[in-house]
Amino acid sequence: MMTTTTDQTLPTGNRLTVCFAHVAYQLASRFAARQNDIRHFQVWTLDELVNRLPEADVLVVSGLWRNFLLDHAPRLRLIQSIGAGVDQFPHDELRARGIRLASARGVNRNAVAEHAMAMVLALARHLHTGRDNQRAHRWRGMISDLNQREDELGGKTMLIVGMGGIGARLAQLAKAFDMRVLATKRNLASGPAPADALFPPDQLPALLPQADFVVLTCPLTPETELLINAEALAAMKPSAYLINMARGRVVDEPALLAALREGRIAGAGLDIFWDEPLPADSPFWDLEQALITPHTAGETRRYEENVIDILLENVARLQRGETVLHNQIV
Ligand code: GLV
């Protein structure tokens, strides 16, 4: 972390320029509604971002980020991530250039937790195949096989891998359905965690065989990359479901595909993948037991306001010459 304040302090008033870069979020118009005098503009494509980034002191960005943009950013002092995840940014390179980075952790906590719960409910209640049958105008008969029938959640075990803010919210929701909630957490001492039991991450192999639903809500880090590999999948019950709300690369995708195809786990709810958009020829599309959403778990109509709250807080801190950011990463 930088110790000097002089080269970190941001210009104030209309000498400060913020660039919002996102393909969909209405960040600039929501920012204008806050009635501050900070100069700002929005770009919606990578080309526009390359052209206009040289004007910006602050960049608000997530999926449009590319590392080569650093060569087009002579004024840049702060990147405010629009996403909770910050794995796409070159942390060391930013540090070396004196560019600060803050995540938007917290902005989509409720959305992602509700999305995970929606996946759990959909898979348990067979909504995914119900919709397939609806499209085919097929009224499916009742299922005799107790291993195949719809089920209820009470008494089932949810294992939350990565008990941060999203995991904590999800645990509350799962408890409302009378589920037993186990969770792993890097720092067991930090923050409240409404799970029945908390474990350090190295306990995962012992926890996987107990779970009916394994929900990934951890960040992508060197420790979590490919965490759910063939061995981890083999440790899950054949009746269990994997719900990935984290990052594609937390899961060994070919191993997951094999486990699903061979019925070694019951199914998966997947919001993210190694390659996004998921290629049209990906085998995941055609797996009946996979429920896919297009990296939308964090979507909410409150997204813009939530990000702008964090942005304004961090801009104010840097303008005051403070060095510690809200959700500081670099
Ligand atoms: C979404 O994936 C995020 O990182 O917020």
* H/E element order: EHEHEEHEHHEHEEHEHEHEEH
Low-pLDDT ranges: 1-6
What is the spatial order of strands in the main beta sheet?
8-7-6-9-10-11-12
Whole-angstrom Rg? 22 Å
Hetero ligands: glyoxylic acid
How many β-strands, per DSSP? Answer: 12
Mean pLDDT: 95
Strand residue content: 5-15%
Overall geometry comes to elongated
Instruction: Give me the CATH superfamily of the largest domain.
Output: NAD(P)-binding Rossmann-like Domain
Report what the structure shows:
With 330 residues, the chain is an alpha/beta fold. It has 2 domains: 13-107 and 301-319, Rossmann fold (3-Layer(aba) Sandwich), CATH 3.40.50.720; 109-292, 3-Layer(aba) Sandwich (Rossmann fold). The protein is built from 10 helices and 12 strands. The protein has helices at 27-32, 46-52, 91-97, 109-124, 127-135, 165-176, 204-207, 230-235, 253-261, 303-319; strands at 17-21, 39-43, 58-61, 78-81, 100-102, 157-161, 180-184, 197-199, 213-216, 241-244, 267-270, 290-292. The strands form 2 sheets. Strands 8-7-6-9-10-11-12 form a 7-stranded parallel sheet, covered by helices on one side. The chain has a 5-stranded parallel sheet with strand order 2-1-3-4-5, sandwiched between helices. Helix 6 (165-176) links the parallel strand 6 and strand 7. Mean pLDDT is 95; it is low at 1-6. Bound molecules: glyoxylic acid (GLV). Residues 83-85, 108, 298 line the site of glyoxylic acid. Glyoxylic acid is lined by residues 83-85, 108, 298.
